[in-house]
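re the bet — no i am not wrong, look at it urself. input seq straight from the record:
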Amino acid sequence: MEFNYESGLGRPDLVIKDKKKRRVVIMEMKITDSLESMKKAGERASKQLEEIRYADSIYAQGYQKVLKYSAVFYRKSCLIGRCEE
């Protein structure tokens, strides 16, 4: 598991690598100040995952499957979204 290491054009918040099965989970996380703003923050996180191209360097390392998720937090609430490949 790696936190905030350089990948693509930036630094994803969390990267979990399964070296044996050659797959990776990348997560971009946001914290909001209201329940109402969670959905919009999730969209921003998903957009960031795509625009900054975090998965590019993962594929260059030989991993075959990359799953990308956004996670948004407000107090005890959490909204998880999966980005399409």
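see?? The chain has one domain: 2-83. told u. also The first helix runs from residue 38 to 51. so pay up
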